[in-house]
Amino acid sequence: MALPDKNALIGPTVTEAQFKTNLGVIIDFVKPIELQSPSYSSTALLTATRPAGNQSYAKALDTGKVWFWDKPAGSADGNYWKVTDLSDLDQAKIFANSNPNFKAGSFSIAFDFDLQLTMGQYDVSNSVLNNSTHKPPFDVGGILIVEGSGKDYFARQRFCTIDNQEAVRTKKDVWGAWDVVIKAGDLKAKPIISPIDFNAYKASGTYTITTVILLQCTNRPPVNAGGIFEVKGTGADYLTAHVFRSYDNIDVSRTFKTTWGAWDLYIKASDLKPKVVSSAIDFNAFNVPGPYSITNNVLATCSNGPPTPNGGIFQNIGTGAAYYTHREYVSFKGEFFKQSLETTWGPWKKLATTDITDYLAQQIAAIQIPGTGLTGKKWAAIGDSITYGLNNTDNRSWANILAERYGAVLTKHAFSGAWISKGTGTISIPNVLSESFANLPDSANFDLIAIAAGTNDRINGVDGNLGTPDDRTNETFYGALHVTLSGLKLKFPNARMLFISQIPRIGLRSNPNNPTDLDKKFKAITEVCDYYSVPVWAGHKNFGFHPDDNAAFRSKCMPDGLHPSDDGQVWYANRLEQPILSAAK
Fold first, then answer.
1. How far apart are CA 573 and CA 565, in angstroms?
2. What is the pLDDT of residues 230-241, one digit of tens each?
3. CA distances, 290 to each of 124, 267, 299 (Å)
4. Looking at the DSSP assignment, which residues form a beta bridge with residue 155?
5. Gap between the Cα atoms of 241 and 264, Å rounded
6. CA atoms of 507 and 521, how far apart (whole Å)
7. Distance CA 226, CA 320 (A)
8. pLDDT of residue 4
9. Cα–Cα distance, 109 to 125 (Å, whole number)
10. What is the pTM of this model?
11. Weakest mean pLDDT among 117-126, 267-276, 547-556
């Protein structure tokens, strides 16, 4: 089997498209070889084999190489195996080595980096780089790598200098800024080996500096020991800061606005611990800020001290300057003294003793705040969406406000859209209070029950009926009131009760001369409540405003004209406060 012309198939003049076509020829040539020729597990086994014919092929599986047995006719026995470049790997290498697309290109003249969108790798010399436009932020040449398709959002440039710096950028609609890649070595502290002017040092990074070098620097931090120095930010106005930590653990910092600010000393936990005064001092000359401890014996040797023989803790507060300094002293027995510095130290003032404070504490503790009728009481608030707290923060209605204000134990049995009666069945009612109150546990043993409902009940003769005072079933409004009040009285015989009739809403007013539904339902409520001796708080009379009367007040307290806002619930609670407290007694 004759070998095909290698240059014609995979030579340097073959294009990528031609190579794809020639692959078929190569496969047609190699496939019969693989099918007809044996495979050996190792090269040693293959080369030890002696085929019967003069020419044949075999494959060594340990290397993937294809070998050719080429024994001339009549020649003596021997090893006539020759390794070929017919394996898949060899063919790929040959193609890659001969194809210029797999080798780095080179720029010999300056160019615009923004226009380089063709995928590949390119050598860029120092001079070419420094004369090019839109170049990376380096002055040392290297390799430009263009990745992606070159289209918007699918192109990326990476530049690696010969001194191992790297920058990248991506193209959206336009090229983004070059971003320098941070390497592990960049994060290591760099030594400052000669004196510097700290005011001129704005290169971001972390640095080390010895004591000897530090003491020769200008505008240096107010420390006397070397340490770690960090420049944070960009180096620009308002965006740069210095942080210095000495090896003896003193930290200072400053920031750069248009000029460098003063160095500021950090306060540490150890600075807040009291320092021991171990020998006599003149308190009038001792202005250094900070906390101090002093024993009885040392205090006895001091001048201008507090009027006590007892040691303790004292603290100088302020700057140490006149009018900006004062001192507090607390003895170990609880005596408390204070003095202030004007131009001179003023007299010590004894503020209190432990005996006095303990006595006052006992007196204060003995004062009892009188409770109210609601404090500690078990209270059930039965109602509709207004009592539920619809549209209010955390569903906090008037009932929650009063219960929190007076420490009552509140149970809310309130539901949006609730009726007292069950209606005629023409519409779906979310909750019928004359039925659902039975779900309240007998064991609750409420002290107070407040019912605030009725605004949702319809008495139009279609969806619901008003009924008569003699009704005793919950099909009518009158009857449902009887069922509810008698049922609650039977279930909770010890509970005080208050009925809260509906509050004003848009488009509905009282008209005694031509009674509206409001008037009719209020008449039913008062008649049935009178029957059971339950007091009534007339919501439409006592609420204090009508949403149709004032747009600003409505916007603040009842935006939808029906449900009070958070402010409206507070208003409602304040109107109900005294009636609820009175009913709870």
1. 12
2. 999 888 888 899
3. 63, 11, 17
4. 148, 171
5. 12
6. 16
7. 29
8. 64
9. 9
10. 0.42
11. 267-276
Length of the chain: 585
Q: How far is CA 488 from the centre of its chain?
A: 49
Residue 459: its pLDDT value, please? 96
- 186, 205, 306 from 183: Cα distances, Å: 5, 13, 62
What are the E-state strand segments in 310-377? 312-318, 325-331, 336-341, 349-352
Give the list of residues 6+ apart from residue 15 with CB closer than 8 angstroms, or none.
none
- Burial group, residue 585, by CB count within 10 angstroms (0-12, 13-18, 19+): exposed
User: How many helices (H) does the chain have, and how many strands (E)?
Assistant: 16, 27
334: left (phi over 0), alpha (psi -120 to 50) or beta: left
Q: Give the CATH number of domain 378-584.
A: 3.40.50.1110
* From-to residues of CATH 3.40.50.1110 in the chain: 378-584
State pLDDT tens for residues 126-153: 999 999 999 999 999 999 999 988 888 8
pLDDT digits (tens, 9 = 90+) for 305-329: 999 999 999 999 988 888 889 999 9
DSSP 13-24: T--HHHHHHHHH
pLDDT for 520: 96
pLDDT of residue 31: 61
> Side-chain half-sphere of 128: how many Cα atoms within 13 Å?
17
